[in-house]
Automatic annotation (TrEMBL):
One of its GO terms (molecular function) is ATP binding. Keywords: ATP-binding, Cell membrane, Membrane, Nucleotide-binding, Translocase, Transport. Belongs to the ABC transporter superfamily. CDD domains: ABC_cobalt_CbiO_domain1. This is ABC transporter ATP-binding protein. Its main location: membrane. The lineage of its organism: Bacteria, Bacillati, Bacillota, Negativicutes, Veillonellales.
Length: 282
């Protein structure tokens, strides 16, 4: 699957009046890493639910506008088929663990089993993914007895083992320590280099700045900004959408206020160092 296109999409959950997605128009292109940011309750998870077909198949409610997958309407697609092309890593890893498998190995193998992949291939793919996520030591543990961070890695493993074209990932590092978060981001980056489309919801602005190509800012169910990570995250108006800019940009604003403006507003620590050195050598 190459593109997902949303045209004037509105959605309200059942028994609610106010749309949670309000006139959303956006196109997601193959091989691009999208970051979706915005304050709590702005509609990010609801957007993920729509992209994965959970709206309107699981969540009912009022949906209007067009949702097109390679030009085909969402309503005309089989939700099971969609789940093969689009992997969804939920915000809450406790939701994602099936609860029917006794070991992490079996849990990660479950989706491939359901697709009828041969046992030999399942074993090879699961071993590779467990190694990639550095959870081989958990292979024989019961998934229900893991910590939140361990479950988050298992949930992530059970999606990437399926090798979907598009990954919709909702706060994959909320339960992880800084080293675990860095690891997950570097894996997501590797997946992007394999030409996967990544749509990531995340509150960690420094990570969004370091990895995303395009950043979408949501507020009150609308996409209020859509542009390159540099253009969106360096914009001082970002705070108006309830989002704290990355630390590098904040430092540049402070320097400017102190009468020491940099040539540009950096969004990563590396770029910030480069601009400070340039200013220093002037
Ligand atoms: N199942 C539901 N039924 C009714 N309203 C819902 C449901 N799920 C979410 N909402 C409402 O929709 C709005 C958007 O919620 P959503 O979870 O999409 O926001 P979010 O941007 O992902 O928030 P967060 O950053 O806290 O995860 C909120 O007002 C929320 O209360």
């Amino acid at each position: 699957m190459d593109t997902i296109e949303l045209k004037h999409v509105r959605y309200a959950y059942p028994l609610t009046q106010k749309p949670v997605l309000d006139d959303i128009s956006v196109t997601f292109e193959k091989g691009t890493f999208y970051g979706v940011i915005g304050e709590n309750g702005s509609g990010k998870t609801t957007l993920c639910n729509l992209l994965r077909g959970l709206i309107p198949n699981f969540y009912k409610g009022e949906l209007s506008g067009d949702v097109l997958f390679d030009g085909v309407h969402l309503q005309d697609l089989d939700v099971d088929q969609l789940s093969v092309s689009i992997g969804y890593v939920f915000q809450n890893p406790f939701t994602q663990i099936s609860g029917v498998k006794k070991t992490v190995f079996e849990e990660v193998a479950l989706g491939l089993e359901n697709l009828g992949v041969s046992p030999q291939e399942i074993i090879e793919r699961v071993i590779r993914v467990l190694e990639l996520l550095e959870i081989t030591h958990l292979a024989q543990k019961n998934p229900t007895e893991l910590s939140g961070g361990q479950r988050q890695r298992v949930a992530f493993a059970s999606i990437i083992v399926m090798d979907p074209d598009i990954l919709v990932i909702d706060e994959p590092t909320s339960q992880l320590d800084p080293a675990g978060s860095m690891k997950v981001f570097s894996i997501i980056d590797q997946l992007k280099k394999q030409n996967k489309t990544i749509i990531l919801v995340e509150h960690k602005m420094n990570m969004i700045a370091a990895y995303c190509d395009i950043v979408l800012v949501m507020r009150d169910g609308k996409i209020v900004k859509n542009g390159t990570a540099q253009a969106v995250l360096s914009d001082a108006a970002l705070a108006e959408a309830g989002v704290q800019p990355p630390e590098a940009a904040l430092l540049a604003y402070d320097l400017k206020a102190a009468g020491i403006p940099l040539e540009d507003i950096p969004i990563t620590a590396g770029e910030c160092c480069r601009l400070i050195r340039k200013r220093w050598e002037r």
